[in-house]
Design goal:
Blueprint: E1 2-6, H1 11-20, E2 28-33, H2 41-44, E3 52-56, H3 62-69, E4 74-77, H4 91-111, E5 116-122, H5 143-156, E6 163-169, E7 171-173, H6 184-194, E8 197-201, E9 207-212, H7 213-225, E10 231-235, E11 238-241, H8 242-252, E12 257-261, H9 283-297
Parallel strand pairs: 1-2, 1-4, 2-3, 4-5, 5-6, 6-10, 7-9, 8-12
Antiparallel strand pairs: 9-11
Helix pairs in contact: 1-7, 3-4, 4-5
Length: about 300
């Protein structure tokens, strides 16, 4: 099995490649990434990769992308601009990378169809609502969510030639060497360990959907090696508000301070569930596992 992973040197890609490289069914993994974040830990941290090759390139460059798209069994599309996905920063980059970058990939996948296309979309396509499922009509409220939905709409066309999985991810959290600090739980845990003080935007009542990184990697492999039907899938383990996460951190850190930024502001919530995937988890257990990972890997002076 030959697998191409766009954006494979990023946060999710790092853990996914580490897992897939050990799988006997996989013969070759091609990681295509422009190293925009200049995080070279992908090459220096973790176990040796025996089946993986790296190709530096940009998702917007059709000539670079065409070289790696040919003769793939599975294409996993992780390449995206994801900084601060729930606000309005970097709108141009969201549209360019997430939307038009996917259009470039789409044109090549029509020409060189793989068996499966797996796309890491986002819960942000739903906008700010409660109790959303795969049957809830998308209604994105920012450029990030719109760019992901536009990308979905193109890739859906490929169902005529390939199995297509549009995976709407909750906020992914957990430690690895390619750590993403735009993930709110990652940010709060790092602040708690390093500064002994966390910052919460708004009044803290806003709800977000979450999935622990190891669980995401485990569930991604159901789509890679399984035989699920094409379609939209929500990947989420639990929903919590910021104050509940604060309370968890305080339980293990009696001296932890916290401060609210714009405390009078009621920030909108997004609460997501899945009618197709049964991956619910106990929030306290998942948060505890993640916090242990951070304690083990973050040096405190």
């Amino acid at each position: 099995m030959r697998i191409l992973i766009t954006g494979g040197a990023g946060y999710i890609g790092y853990s996914l490649v580490q897992s897939l490289d050990k799988n006997e069914s996989v013969t070759k993994i091609t990681v295509f990434d422009n190293l925009y974040k200049k995080n070279f830990n992908f090459f220096t941290q973790g176990e040796n990769l025996n089946k993986t090759i790296f190709a530096k390139g940009d998702i917007l460059n059709i000539y670079e992308l065409e070289k790696v798209v040919k003769n793939q069994d599975i294409v996993i599309h992780l390449a995206a601009h994801v900084d601060s996905p729930f606000n309005y920063q970097d709108n141009y980059k969201y549209e360019q990378v997430n939307h038009y970058g996917t259009v470039v990939l789409f044109n090549l996948l029509e020409k060189f169809p793989p068996q499966k296309v797996i796309f890491a979309s986002s819960a942000a396509v739903y906008g700010f609502k409660q109790n959303v499922t795969e049957n809830t009509p998308p209604e994105p409220m920012n450029y990030y969510g719109s760019s992901k939905l536009n990308a979905e709409n193109y890739l859906k066309i490929l169902e005529k030639k390939s199995q297509v999985y549009l995976l709407r991810l909750g906020n992914v959290f957990g430690y690895n060497p390619m750590l993403r600090m735009d993930s709110v739980i990652n940010k709060l845990m790092m602040e708690a360990l390093i500064y002994k003080k966390i910052k919460i935007y708004g009044n803290g009542n806003q709800i977000r959907p979450f999935i622990h990184l190891p669980s995401l990697i485990e569930n991604l492999q159901q789509f890679i090696f399984g035989n699920k039907e094409s379609g939209v899938y929500n990947l989420v383990e639990f929903n919590q508000n910021m104050n509940e996460i604060r309370d968890f951190l305080i339980e293990g850190n009696s001296d932890l301070e916290f401060v609210y930024l714009n405390s009078n502001q009621e920030v909108k919530s997004l609460e997501m569930f899945s009618e197709k995937m049964k991956i619910k988890a106990n929030p306290a257990e998942k948060l505890a596992l993640a916090y242990q990972e951070f304690e083990k890997n973050v040096r405190i002076f």
